[in-house]
């Protein structure tokens, strides 16, 4: 990854600020669309799409539809990774935004099982799958536009404007459900109120598209295309195949690094919400407020960690974050089981900060880990692989472990195990920060 060593012009600085704002807004809205599904799955989908099942079975079925979006994400990474490496980062990203917005509105318009029977959950899974494909392609487009356009020594900071879209999207989704929950009676919330956050995407999508269509593709990719137009030697004909055959080891290590961050995040987002309301009898709105406050800490931690990685390196922060998640796994549920809203907030907030130490530098780290001509494909695959097993599977697995053991110890053990796997992957992976300002692209022989 190359960058000029000269100071950027005022026009260039203005463009970078606009790009970072566009990246943050686009990522936030797309993750909003993705995350409101998890909240709805924990609160109402079991009741309205699986009405004949027991409460536990309905919850498991609801979370299994939640999982479908994560199963689809690697497919989205493959499809849009190919488009992003062959055609451009921006076209792939804009297509993803349209797809996720349309599928989200479709969920908001979906009839219930009482109205159309078994067709309702089938359509629900289909729309969730389309959401997953879009999100699977979106992440690579956002982080590469940001990091490939960044000034020298600022790639970690630039990448955080895509990464912060995750907690901002969660905050937007949580606020949406809180407002609806506080203004609509419980019966009306189950009947139709839950649809409002999904339908709101119809208003948000045009704003995001307006911003994104006014952003240029990254300078590095434009240089790659110009070289290809003159020599036909730079753009890989089959970037997915090239990425997998040449960089498979780094793809797997990159996926392993992210596993713990995903596990802790989705336990806090969906697992604790279901466990707190169904098993501990805590207030739904109170838990949403705790999640909202913890997400605000996550925003600050992601920005700090990404920016700090420009000074001290990507690996040291990710090592500390993975180790902290392993150590916090058991105190996490000890605090939640107090049934105190304050201690629930402390548990989720500290877990989120530890997770952010990995997630903050992660965008720049993956961007620096791969060559430009396969970067979209390789980075997207590495980021989306944990989605199948860890991200989507964690709320389902947490519910199943609680039902099988009657205790949260097994869930804490799962968190600790995934964190130790991530720590091992970080230790086995190369540091990329030393190449900042020159090149962070390894030769195929070094992968």
From TrEMBL:
PROSITE patterns: MFS (PS50850), SUGAR_TRANSPORT_2 (PS00217). Its main location: membrane. The keyword Cell membrane applies. The chain crosses the membrane at residues 21-50, 56-80, 92-110, 122-146, 158-180, 192-211, 251-275, 287-305, 317-335, 341-360, 381-403, 409-428. Residues 19-433 form the Major facilitator superfamily (MFS) profile domain. SUPFAM superfamilies: MFS general substrate transporter. CDD domains: MFS_ShiA_like. It is a multi-pass membrane protein. GO terms for molecular function: transmembrane transporter activity. It is found in: Cell membrane. InterPro entries: MFS_dom (IPR020846), MFS_sugar_transport-like (IPR005828), MFS_trans_sf (IPR036259), Sugar_transporter_CS (IPR005829). Keywords: Cell membrane, Membrane, Transmembrane, Transmembrane helix, Transport. It comes from the Bacteria. GO terms for cellular component: plasma membrane. This is MFS transporter. The lineage of its organism: Bacteria, Bacillati, Actinomycetota, Actinomycetes, Pseudonocardiales.
